[in-house]
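Hello forum,

I keep getting stuck at the same step: I have a sequence, I want structure tokens, and every attempt I make locally crashes halfway through. Rather than fight my setup again tonight, could one of you with a working pipeline run this one for me? It's a single chain of 778 residues.
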Amino acid sequence: MRDRLNIEVIGGGPAGLYFAILAKKAFPASRIAVHERDRPEDSFGFGVVFSDETLGNFLSHDPESYERITEGFAYWDEIDFALHGETIRSVGHGFCGCSRAALLGILQGRAREVGVELNYRSEITDLSRFQDADIIVGADGINSRVRELHKEQFGPSFEWRKNHFIWCGTTKPARAFTFDFTVNRHGIWVLGVYQYNKVLSTWIIEAPERTWASARAEVEHLSEPELLAYMERLWADRLGGHRLISNKSVWRTFPTIRCEKWSFGNIVLLGDALHTAHFSVGSGTKLAMEDAIALADALKGAESVPAAFTAFEAARREEVEKTQHAADVSVIWTEQPHRYWHMEPLQAAFSMLSRSKQVTYENLRLRDPALIDRIDAWFAAKLRDQGFDVPAGPPPPPMFTPFRLRDMLVRNRVVVSPMDMYSAEDGIVGDFHFAHFASLAFGGAGLIFSEMLCVSREGRITPGCAGLYQPEHVPAWRRIIDFVHANSDARFALQIGHAGRKGSTRVAWEGMDQPLPRGNWPLIAPSALPHYPFSQTPREMTREDMDRVRAEFVRAANLAEAAGADMLELHMAHGYLLSSFITPVANKRGDPYGGSLENRMRYPLEVFDAVRRAWPDAKPISVRISATDWVGDDGITGPDAVAIAKMLKAHGCDLIDVSAGQTTPEAKPVYGRMFQTPFSEEVRNEAGIPTIAVGNITTADQVNTILAAGRADLVALARPHLINPHFTLEAAALYGVSAQRWPLQYDSGKEQALRLAARDKADADRMRQMLRPKSHRK
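Reply #2:
Ran it on my machine without issues. Output:
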């Protein structure tokens, strides 16, 4: 990169100014100019928030501006969560707030010091005047003119969040970052508060969708003074006589902005012009200034402008997308507060703190061990109230507490998820399955699932699938289940299902979902639609077919009882037969079994009722569902999953195993850690039925986070158990849970594991403490 560059920055907000400062320091011989449409003293909004980690970034890149920013900031490490008259405080979070106007003033002054040219009241309507520029930086905010001029090249998309909100200030001090709620005749209102200097705080007041629908006619067209007066009445008990302060405090909705491309020619976008993440996970100013740092660093390390833009995107895109995903998950809490309204304040507080997955059970233990101790004690006390013998001091972590469904008691909350092994002969499992389940039993999980056992030969996915359609299948499962019961505390569930239109395919390692090269059997489905274009086309089921398949499910249930299973699960997920009745992407019937969700559930509920009648009343039945088809409103959505769960509950279902997708090749799943857990939370808390969470859950920390936050009652792990069948024993050693049963033959290893785990945990905690961002409290 040559020393003399001509850089034009469009937008004089924090991102543009901070980039200009850093670029001028890196290339002092360059001409760098900032163009801002407003006056230097104009500022819209109130405070901005930075974490300790971000402040450390500022310190290392420009100590002078860092010192000025931190001289007048308000620092806190407490978060207060107020619900139902109780306030839960969590410590150890490390934030600072400062005035947006003050921040702009600091950055303007610093930019002048280093020689940046500042141009105010400079409206840029096109870029033709910058033909001589080496670099044009579009840092002109959410309504970016630069992005709009080249929208075909940048490919922006906009997703508007559901809540309406206003941004205002107040003279009421805030001693912590505060989440609060109030209720009037319109519904639940949400409040976020943080202090940003010694005398002023920011208030963000949100109207969730339900509340807005009721309140809109009353509040939408109020003038700014009238709106603030309304809010002062609504929050009078919180304000304590203080007034709200306006600054364009009008109703807004938040757009999440994403751009397919971050640069075009010599133009690059920065900050809100490039991307946004909902304010529920922090300040957009933080993201914008981190962009400025990354772009300046990329210019310093690259040989050309295109190479710098490539390096900038490589350095930032993944981090930005992670933040946006965290925000998309986080914002559900304030968009759907009714989902959590029944929770006790302590659990609701932990749910709120852990909502974005950035704070977890172990992460919070590092920040605020006393709060985790309270959560463990609360969780254990709730179980003692139900008659369980759970120690009070010290209580176990949530994953090592018992759970009961009808007469079935599981000793801990860890579940081995169903996993197809494709290793059966005409449906009969052999030595491989025995060894597989024996090793899992030794590993300590509370509940072990079989793979899907097909209810007929024609209902198999592959020739290698296990079945439960003839008496010859029972002895092998009886042998496995008896061994598991004799050598562990685990309960054993058999899952039964019918492949439907996804049947007659090769085993996984020979070509997943590919039709058999020969020997295919005919398929049935609710509609004559192949799953893939290359799949076999099924025959549309007749009423006679429905009666026969229903009887096959009943037969399988009777065989499962003969095998000694503790629980039965019906597979109504992943595009198999019952799932394909439920989802509109596969069910196009014009009779009473197609059309509305109620009609599409008619046959699955017929099957469930028949199985429930055949299955012993003392034993539970669960149902696995796909809570979304990942195709938006064209398929099953979260609210549909709640409705499905309510119907199943009304018919006697005890537990919903909440999975997602695999119903259509058109699906566009959003993967990530615990990516299906939000659906489990939605079903559990809105349908009022116990759930199993499943899907990319890999650690004991995640298991405890899910349980403590009320997102599920049991947590299933699949692939982690293939890698480490002793996942639960390892976690028991980590948490010092000596009550966890080990095989008698492994007793010598148990004592060593507990001792070494205690040492390793102490070492890991020390390392995490050392790696924590330094506090910038002054």
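The longest strand covers residues 187-195. If your local run keeps crashing, start a new thread with the error log.
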